[in-house]
Amino acid sequence: MRQLARLIPTSAFTRLLLVFLFTGLLLNLLVVGFFAWTINTHGVRPADRQIADYVTYLLDEIGDPPSQERALQISRRSGLAIGYEGSVGRWFAGRSEPPPPWRHLRFRGIEGYDGVRIGGQGNRQVVLVERGGARFVFELPRRLARPPSPVRLLALVATVVTLLVGGAWLLMRRVFRPLKFISEGVSQVAAGNLAHTVPEEGSREFASLAHAFNEMTGRVGQMLAMRERLLLDASHELRSPLTRMKVALEFVPEGTARESLREDLVEMEQLVTAILESARLSRAGEQIRRQRFDLAAILQRVAGRFAAQPPGVQIEGALAPCFMEGDPDLLATVLRNLVENAVKFSTGSAQPVQVALEECEGQVRLTVRDSGPGISAGDLPRIFDPFYRVDTSRSRGTGGYGLGLSICRSIVAAHGGSIDVQSTVGVGTTVTVVIGNAVPRGAVPGGPAA
């Protein structure tokens, strides 16, 4: 068995070529065999005139008056079943059983042969001859009867060809099955799961491709881990110099220079804090403190915090209690980041930021909508990447370090939810968060506090 397996090519392209060659060979054999069978079986079928000549010759041999003995000899020799009705009686030669009824058959005449008609049904063909007030019936053997219906033959050929092509397709699907695993692996990596590996099986090319894919994801994971470690180490190491600089700043005389240095120190300290917070929340799933709380109460507090900051925050509809299971502190961070971004990028807009919270079929749905400048289609796929900012100038006017949405996605994913951003340039941006941890109102005795 192993020796036979060694003879089978391991190249996917060679296998593909062999499959097509084998399928083509079978199809050619089928077509050639079908036409050969058709020609041999039906290509030399006697025509009506030949049948009429043959029957006339047999009538002469039977004689006048007709002899049943001679008819029986002819029947044994030729395979014909011969029947007679006339003045000398009625007999049938060629069958032990009575002849089948023939009067219901449809007959057609033969030009040039008076009194000779041919009829049939299915594989049965009968020649009727009327001569001198007598009637002779000749039932032809099946090999000379009408050929099978062309429709049936075509259906048979179509069925066989379909089976061959279907078998080839199944074999091709098996050969290229590793591509499905690789495609699933690409989707997993695109979703951020760098630990996913694909089976290294199949033909030589696919096995090599799967091995290269697994090596690539492993190296990318190592690079990202090293980058994260570098950021964490650098952030920790920067805390001590920043503290010393803050102490030294106290000895700098009051003035513009001191204020500028103080703003720079504050910005650096905020950046270090944001990096450390992002690293901590990247593993939010391991840190969730699940408890029952009212998300509507948290949203009310967050909206009130930005109510006085133009253009303001408006809650759509009546804000009913919305109880859920999760970490209230982490989800408060999500609400705060989303509302803060919407307010910050809506500066100068006459429309306040619209916030909506609703519960439906066990899911909590939060929507934050602004009337800001919007985000281009080219930037949308990357807004959740750490340190990515749509404002490439990184001016202090827009602020932030490109970590807010990344943190939000980590927290929402840790709660088993999803976050989606829809934006149109010049119209505004809508952020939708869906989390399926809602607690039915009837299951909250007394309405627990937020």
Summarize the structure.
The protein folds into four domains: 2-44 and 150-175, no CATH class; 48-144; 204-281, Signal transduction histidine kinase, dimerisation/phosphotransfer (DHp) domain (Helix Hairpins, Orthogonal Bundle), CATH 1.10.287.130; 289-443, Histidine kinase-like ATPase, C-terminal domain (Heat Shock Protein 90, 2-Layer Sandwich). It is 48% helix and 18% strand.
Q: How would you describe this protein?
A:
20% of the residues are buried. It is elongated and about 150 Å long. The protein is built from eleven helices and 13 strands. The strands form three sheets. It has a six-stranded antiparallel beta sheet. Strands 8-10-11-13-12 form a five-stranded mixed beta sheet, covered by helices on one side. The longest helix is centred in the middle third of the chain and has 46 residues, at 204-249. Strand 12 and strand 13 form a beta hairpin. The chain folds into four domains: 2-44 and 150-175, no CATH class; 48-144; 204-281, Signal transduction histidine kinase, dimerisation/phosphotransfer (DHp) domain (Helix Hairpins), CATH 1.10.287.130; 289-443, Histidine kinase-like ATPase, C-terminal domain (Heat Shock Protein 90, 2-Layer Sandwich). The chain has helices spanning 2-7, 12-43, 48-62, 68-78, 150-175, 177-190, 204-249, 256-281, 295-305, 328-344, 404-414; strands at residues 81-86, 89-93, 107-110, 113-121, 124-131, 134-139, 291-294, 313-315, 323-326, 353-360, 363-369, 418-424, 428-435. By secondary structure, it is α+β, with helices and mostly antiparallel strands. Helix content is 48%, strand content 18%. Mean pLDDT is 76; it is low at 445-450.
